[in-house]
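Q: I'm writing up a methods section and want to include an example of the input and output format. Could you take the sequence below and give the corresponding predicted structure tokens, formatted cleanly so I can copy it straight into the document?
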Amino acid sequence: MSINTSSDGRLVHFPGKTVLSRQEAMHYLGVSRMAFLALRTLRCTPRPRQLDGRSVYREEELERFKTGLLQAVGVSQTDTPYQQTRHTPHLAPLQAQPAAQTPPAPHIDPLMQLLARAAIRHRVVLLVLWGMVFVGGLCTLILF
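A: Here is the clean output for your methods example:
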């Protein structure tokens, strides 16, 4: 099943749960909030779609992005011992739970967090180098 988009990129119709909100995309990738914000700001993540003024991400595109990060370091989700760790909450036995409990913090996958930081670092280095080339070119044009 595919998602139909209009000519301006807005989401028209989607069957099932194939799009994720920003928070769900962050959990899906297994990265922290700040890492996801940096990836999004530097345009490393797939392009978000607009749904009722909210940014949503297609699950297929996030899966391709995640697979691309893993393959960049030679890790495959199926052939190697790497498996995304699952968050298991530790409950103390025989203790009463408070009535108003805060939701648990999202689980951060250490490998995905490292790969996200590497992607951020790579993009920042490229931006700085291209900025230096641009400024150097402007200085050359101004001085000569």
